[in-house]
Each structure stands twice: as C-alpha cells, then as structure tokens.
Amino acid sequence: MGVQQLRDETSPAHWKHVGTENNPADCASRGMLVQAMIHSSKWWNGPDFLWQSLHTTQASVEDFVVAEDDPKVKKVVSCLTEAQEASSFLDRLKYFSDWHRATRATAVCLRLQKKFKGKEQSMQKVNTAKQNIVKSEYVPVTAAELKEAENEILKQPQAQAFPEEKRALMNKVNKEEFIYGVGRNKKNVLMKSS
After folding, report:
1. Which residues partner with 131 through β-bridges?
2. 53 shares a domain with 7
C-alpha cells in the first residue's frame, strides 16, 4: 500500500506512533546481522501490540509530539501573491518635483512608446570583430516632443474628470473621419456641404 493510498483511505486520527523499539523497519535501517534478523519475531511478525486486542493497546499508547528539529519532518513553504491595481498616469506624475521634469519624463516615455510601436528607428548597428551589437544613444527631447508631452499630461485629468464627454467627442470624431475623411492632422478630403 502506497503513502497516497494510505492518506486517501485512512484518517490521520487513526494513526498511532510506533517507537523505535517496536518498529520492524528499524531492524534493517539501523543495521542488524542477518542471523539475528532470521530469528527476530519483530522482523517477521511486527510489534507485539499489533497482535493484541484494540482495547488493551489504546491504554498503553501515549500521544506523540514531533520535535521541530526532527529530520524526517518535511517543512512546508507556502507563498501568497497579491495582485495590485496598476497605478494611473496621474499617480505616477506625483513622483516628479516640478513640471519640467514631469514633461521631460513623459516625452521620453512617449518616444519609447512610438519606438516600440515601430514608428521611430533610432537604433544604430555597430559592427565589431566579434558580433553585431545594437547600440542606442540617448537623444535629448525636442521642443515638439515636450509640447506633445504637455498635451498628453493635460489630457489625462480631463479624461478622468469627463469620461462621458470624451467618449462622445471621440465617437463624433470617428464618425467624421469615416464620412468626411477628416483626421486630427489631416485636411478635409471631402468638403462639407452647407
């Protein structure tokens, strides 16, 4: 019978501790001569209390306390993870001490966002004797990027304070783009008729 089967088919409340003096497994694990093992009643028949009635053995069995430093006791480690709600853009701006630092950091983030979306290529390949190394050099943000960052920062509290209005405006802009071909940075493709 395997350990898992014992756990599935029995309850630990029914288990009793068998001391080393009555444990037949200790005959083999602690070293016993073959000649002594052949004549050992404990090895062949198990401990004597297994052959007695249940009522007489219950009185002699004492509660067993496992020592903390017992090497046979397995230690259980459990981990708890907790999901945190992502902080908003505005919460992250609180870390900056002034407006210029906040806009500069936002501009760099917007540049990286464009780069990761494939809209900007500022990577240079440098050949060395061993391998190709991709080198990226920091380029200071431009005035146009700072202006775009300021606009993005100003859009965030507006979007948070007026979500329904923003949604309505976005739907109107999308509808106009579909009907008239109007885009944010595009000129009218079809002129509106009055």
Report:
1. none
2. yes
Number of domains in the chain: 2
- 134: DSSP letter: E
Q: State the DSSP H helix or E strand holding residue 133, giving kind and residue range, or none if neither.
A: strand 132-136
Cβ-Cβ contacts under 8 Å for 47 (sequence gap 6 or more): 18, 22, 23, 24
Contact 151, 157 (CB under 8 A): no
- What token pair was written down for 24? 């037949």
CA distance linking residue 183 with residue 135, whole number of Å? 36
In a domain, 163, yes or no: no
Q: How confident is the model at residue 165 (pLDDT cuts 50, 70, 90)?
A: confident
pLDDT, residue 100, reads 92
Domain extent, residue 96, equals 89-153
- The model carries a pTM of 0.40
Angle at 87 between CA 84 and CA 91, to 5 degrees: 145
Q: Is the dihedral of CA 15, 21, 25, 29 positive or negative?
A: positive
Whether residue 115 lies inside any domain: the answer is yes
